[in-house]
Design brief:
The chain is of the alpha/beta class. The protein contains 17 helices and 11 strands. It binds S-adenosylmethionine.
């Protein structure tokens, strides 16, 4: 729709409806790796189509619709170059969104979204109905390791870009030990250790994740505790729970928090790091991701009040909320 089209409500609605085209086209552009191919010099759509072995006219139209949104630049001679947005489709760019774009456009994701009606009718995840697996990690393992790899790369690049802003937003100086519950490769802990050298950083993870983290910890910075956060969690005076609770329903979140409560030092704290839904703000991204959580996992993004309720049910009180220069906030709970 042209920028000169009057933004009447029906026009606005048509623009919103056509965003499914943009989202999927952006994913295909990410999959094809166009941003990397034009990283050093502009290329014509003809040259790109030959390198990628795709149809030239279709590729031109794909780039054209994206360029209309500021993703790529396209000139009259059909020369394609990166824009400040498509720069972040390059694989090795700091803050790259390439794998997130690939994941959002992947066929398994669209299959599940095709059954959104089911989730709305029942309040359940549509994963089992759509791809035959309740747990899509199981689906990756059994059916599509390639999608599993894109998923974990996407989650890492997405989540890792929040680490430094999180550490900047909180004063860890009174913590003796910081335990990252489900901390993946321990990247957040390494940043904390770098800024607070006296802290003992402990990664609490499932065995396969610990094995992976050890391989990446060549300098031996981290300490490791293998375990399942639904069973028990080793003692600490500061627990980080980053980007975990939004994957689980309330009952499971309370179990994880209760296991922290059982082992926490009397003056300890639990730091939930997650997005906060604000009912009175538009938050299109946050509220869209909440729908992804519903349809994929029957879980959700939460408001401050919802986190407070989880904390209370697990024996904590909400002490403070720290905004950060990332989409995540830090919700601090202390034992009651
Ligand atoms: C979405 S990732 C978040 C990783 C990390 N906290 C971050 O922000 O990047 C979820 C993590 O939880 C871990 N995890 C899942 N189930 C677990 C369990 N039952 N016990 C311990 N860790 C678990 C996974 O191995 C994975 O690394």
């Amino acid at each position: 729709m042209s920028n000169t089209t009057q933004k009447t409500p029906p026009n606005h609605m048509r623009e919103i409806l056509s965003q499914m085209v943009l989202s999927r086209s952006l994913s295909i552009a990410a999959e094809l790796g166009i941003a990397d191919l034009v990283a050093n010099q502009p290329k014509s759509t003809l040259q790109l189509s030959q390198e990628l072995k795709v149809n030239e006219n279709a590729l031109y139209r794909l780039v054209r619709v994206l360029a209309a949104q500021g993703i790529f630049e396209l000139d009259k001679n059909k020369m394609v170059s990166n824009s400040e947005i498509s720069d972040f489709l390059m694989e090795d760019m700091e803050g790259s969104q390439r794998n997130f774009a690939r994941m959002m456009g992947s066929p398994w994701m669209w299959k599940i979204f095709n059954d959104l009606e089911y989730s709305i009718a029942t309040g359940d995840s549509a994963s089992k109905k759509a791809i035959g697996y309740e747990n899509f990690f199981e689906y990756f393992k059994q059916e599509s390791p390639k999608d599993g790899k894109i998923f974990s790369q996407s989650m890492s690049s997405f989540s890792y870009s929040f680490d430094q802003p999180l550490v900047n937003a909180y004063d860890f100086s009174t913590c003796k030990q910081v335990t990252d519950v489900g901390g993946a490769e321990g990247r957040l802990l390494k940043i904390i250790k770098n800024q607070y050298p006296s802290i003992k950083p402990v990664l609490f993870e499932l065995p396969h994740a610990i094995e992976q983290a050890k391989q990446n910890d060549t300098e031996g910075i981290l300490n490791y505790e293998e375990g399942d956060f639904f069973n028990s969690i080793a003692a600490s005076d500061c627990y980080l729970i980053k980007y975990i609770l939004h994957n689980w329903n309330d009952e499971n979140c309370i179990k994880i928090l209760q296991n922290c409560r059982k082992s926490i030092a009397p003056n300890g704290r639990v730091l939930i790091m997650d997005m906060l839904i604000k009912e009175d703000e538009p938050q299109v991204f946050e509220k869209s991701l909440d729908m992804v959580m519903l349809v994929l996992l029957q879980s959700k993004e939460r408001t401050k009040e919802e986190f407070e309720e989880l904390l209370n049910k697990a024996g904590f009180k909400l002490n403070a909320v720290y905004p950060t220069a990332s989409p995540l906030s830090i919700i601090e709970g202390i034992p009651i």
